[in-house]
Amino acid sequence: MLAAADSQTCIRRSNLLTNLNPQTRCDPLQDFNVWASLNPVNQTAPRKANSTIIIAARLDASGVFDFIPGVESSVSGLVTLMLVAESLAKVRSDLTDREIMFVLFNGEAFDYIGSSRLVYDMQKGEFPQKVDLSSNDTVQNAVVRLEDIDLFIELSQLGLVREGKFFLHTDPVSSADAHVRDRVRLFSSISGAEASKANMTSVFLNGTQLPPASFQQFLRSNVSVPGVVITDHQREYQNHFYNSEFDSLKGQMSDYPVNMSDAEAYNYATSIAINAQKVATVVARSVYKFVTGNALKEEANLTTSANLMYCYTYKSNCSLFISYFNGTADQYLKASPLSLYIGVSRGDGSHPVTYASQMTLGNLIGERVNLTEADCKAPAHDKMNKYYFYYNPVVNGTRSGYCVKTNTDLSQAKSPAFLLDGSQVS
Predict the structure, then answer these.
(1) 36, pLDDT greater than 60
(2) Which residues are paired to 369 by β-bridges?
(3) How many H-runs (helices) and E-runs (strands) does the chain carry?
């Protein structure tokens, strides 16, 4: 791969690839976003207006030559999202009035690659997947467009909550729209009440600018999307090591005690894991009441939070991640965290951290089905659901497992600039 003067020149020269000029230039940063849906809508059913709630976080961290752990900048929001997903999946039958989607954006550290691509796909009518109209019998997800979004909730940096206080940021421009203002204020009011019940404080920031967030990509295309960005900071980051190699458990003063065994550490709740669990409890309860009008007593699972923090920030060769691989875990999982750098992809497969996140989210919201490993796959007509097999530890030389049916999949995280001709790239 060679470089060139700028991205536009690179794209043009790469498009001129011939046998006489076989050298590629400017391989794009790309991987996949991870998405999951509770109560998905089939493409054959009419979608109600404002029928979708999106709960989002970022998956990646900035790191090219140096390893960036991203404990606060990325993982704290990612784990909070997964805890919310797990809590709401337990009461999915109460939430049929909305499709609740969870999205992990990839490449956000590099000019919001994942969120800008997802918005582009929504505008093209191709998210979460392009609908196959060749057969009316095909079971597949109905497309989600920007105008379908009832509320967008972004879970940003949430590991350094101080004195139980977190902040809801809104966009002052979009809040001038009466519909946006009403939806955002309703959610913020519910969040404030639910936070108080949990001995926390939810601060609604009205009239201030949004912090850097994936939500801004949605507002650039449709200013009428109601949304909030939830953080542990008001005007300045609590995180003094944003996109730094020191954004680690040790750097954030949230490390495991000295001489603690791996088995003990796996279930040990660090301060960041505790903060994620507390915020997730309030968010899950708020979303539930926002949709149903009723109270939810469910608390986010602290053990899940501890396990996920261990796997993402300490040692990726944890029992949870190992369950996603059948004898090949050693190729990808080590006694260290997985890289959160989006990187350059030359194949069809996702990066290890993306695959691990897909499998984790799928397991948290999915439903176990009584199928063998060989039969753990979707029927030919079903393009909506995925069937994932999870492996138990080896016992007496054999390894069993279980099959999960889930509406969890991947979507492209590659800049739309590579899909446009040169005249449209700026």
Answers:
(1) yes
(2) 403
(3) 10, 11
How does strand 165-169 pair with strand 149-155?
unpaired
Sheet holding 99-105, edge to edge: 201-205, 165-169, 227-231, 149-155, 52-58, 99-105, 30-38, 408-414
Given a contact cutoff of 8 angstroms between Cβ atoms, the answer to whether 165 and 209 are in contact is: no
Round to whole Å and give the CA distance between 139 and 289.
Answer: 30
Cα(353)–Cα(63) distance, integer angstroms: 14
Instruction: Check pLDDT > 80 for residue 16.
Output: no
Residue with tokens 């990646």: 60
DSSP code per residue over 168-183: EE--TTGGGSHHHHHH
Secondary structure (H, E, C), 352-380 = HHHHHHHHHHHHHHCEEECCCCCCCCCCC
Encode pLDDT of 51-103 as tens digits.
899 999 999 998 765 688 899 999 999 999 999 999 999 999 999 999 999 99
> Given the structure tokens 């680690």, which residue do they identify?
248
CA distances from 147 to 179, 208, 233 (A): 12, 24, 29
Residue 221 identity (one-letter amino acid): S
Distance of alpha carbon 398 from alpha carbon 69, whole angstroms? 35
> Which helix (H) or strand (E) covers residue 193, if one does?
helix 178-197
Q: What is d(CA 118, CA 416) in angstroms, rounded to the nearest whole number?
A: 9
Q: Which of 245, 332, 276, 314 is nearest to 61 (CA)?
A: 245
Host H or E run for residue 57 = strand 52-58
209/229 Cα distance (integer angstroms): 11
Query: Is the per-residue pLDDT at 413 higher than 80?
Result: yes
**Dihedral sign computed on CA atoms, order 157, 159, 161, 166:** positive
Residue with tokens 């949870």: 320
Distance of CA 81 to the CA centre of its chain: 7
Whole-model pTM? 0.94
* φ, ψ for residue 181, nearest 5 deg: -60, -45
State how far the Cα of 271 lies from the Cα of 1, in Å rounded to an integer. 43
In angstroms, the CA 128 to CA 98 distance is 16
- 149 forms beta bridges with 52
- Distance CA(269)–CA(254), nearest Å, equals 9
CA–CA separation, 119 vs 105, rounded Å?
11
Pairing of the two strands 227-231 and 201-205: unpaired
**DSSP 8-state assignment for residue 222:** -
Q: What is the largest CA-CA distance in the chain?
A: 69
User: Tokens for 15?
Assistant: 């498009």
Residue showing tokens 């972004």: 154
Q: In whole angstroms, what is the distance from residue 169 CA to residue 130 CA?
A: 33
